[in-house]
Amino acid sequence: MNSRQKVIVITGAASGIGKLLALKFDASGDIVFALDIDELGLGRLREESGGRVHGVLCDLSSKTSISEAFRKVLSRCDHIDVLVNNAGIVHGIFFQDQSQAQIEQTFAINAISHFYTIQEVLPSMTKRNQGHIVTVASAGGFIGAPQLSAYSSSKFAAVGTLESLRGELRAAGVNIKTTLVAPFFIRTGMFDGVRTRFPFLLPILKPEYVAERIFKAIVRKRARVIMPWFVYTVFPMRLLPPAWFDVIADFFGINSVMTHFTGRKKD
After folding, report:
1. CB neighbours of 173 closer than 8 A, spacing ≥ 6?
2. Which pLDDT score is estimated for 266?
3. Catalytic site residue 232?
4. Annotated active-site residue in 116, 151, 209, 232
5. Would you say 255 and 246 are in contact if contact means Cβ atoms under 8 Å apart?
6. For residue 199, what pLDDT is reported?
7. Residue 4 has pLDDT above 90, yes or no
8. What DSSP string describes 211-258?
9. Is the sign of the CA dihedral 158, 161, 164, 169 positive or negative?
10. What's the pLDDT at 30?
């Protein structure tokens, strides 16, 4: 490992945005560890990278599995420069139809896993006084929608987790950077079937575009990436009375975006 190489850990990297990010960091000469429960997907990623990306089998819903995965990473390198909490799941069903297992799995992967992965890297980053923690959340972490109650609330939690961490790091004067990523829906298969009423304002994003934006944000150490720009309008909307807020969300199709949701097809 040379002095310019960075050690990157990306969760949920066997497919989608995580996979694209893994390949981008690998192409830039960094050492990449891809954590995922999808063993076949990790194998395909390793092949595509010419054997350079290290796949580490990990169940992000299990603290024990997370700890074991990081032990494997740190057995190959002595530190981690960048942690990207990218893994996420969605069930896309109505509130009353969600099972206990579905609710708990959504929170375990989308939010609770972040506590455990960050706790794995934070002591070393603090000791070295450098590092970078990235949370890939969602525009759904700023506004809820029908059929997204567990998903949105878990993403709200992920946003709050990173925001609180950032405050602690600033108060302690520790030079660890954080980046919050909040995209609208992405064409990765995870949200197949979703529709947008005004695609020129809220387009379903291309994975390659999103991965490139995230990659550049990490390299440039940007604190926040929200895409598309129209998502920023959620913040002033929250100052309105709830009835007005709901009417605006209806008009822009937020409350009907999941009506035709099918989700990723199983292999």
Report:
1. none
2. 58
3. no
4. 151
5. yes
6. 96
7. no
8. HHHHHHHHHTT-SEEEESGGGGGHHHHTTS-HHHHHHHHHHTTGGGTT
9. negative
10. 97
For residue 141, which of 130, 154, 124, 150 has the smallest C-alpha distance? 154
**What is the helix (H) or strand (E) element at residue 4, kind and residue range?**
none
Q: What would the two tokens of residue 141 be? A: 């972490």
Is the predicted pLDDT of residue 267 greater than 60, yes or no? no
Nearest Cα neighbor of 139 from 226, 200, 197, 258 is: 226
Looking at residue 22, its pLDDT comes to 98
Q: Which residues contact 210 (CB under 8 A, 6 or more apart)?
A: 17, 183, 186, 227
Nearest to 205 by CA among 180, 188, 230: 188
Q: Could you state, in order of their start, the residue ranges of all structural domains in the chain? A: 7-256
What CATH number was assigned to the domain covering residues 7-256? 3.40.50.720
Query: pLDDT value at position 76?
Result: 95
Look-up of token digits 């990523």: 181
Average pLDDT over residues 210-224: 98
pTM (2 d.p.): 0.96
Alpha-helix runs per DSSP H in the chain: 16-27, 39-48, 63-74, 100-107, 113-128, 149-172, 207-219, 234-237, 242-251
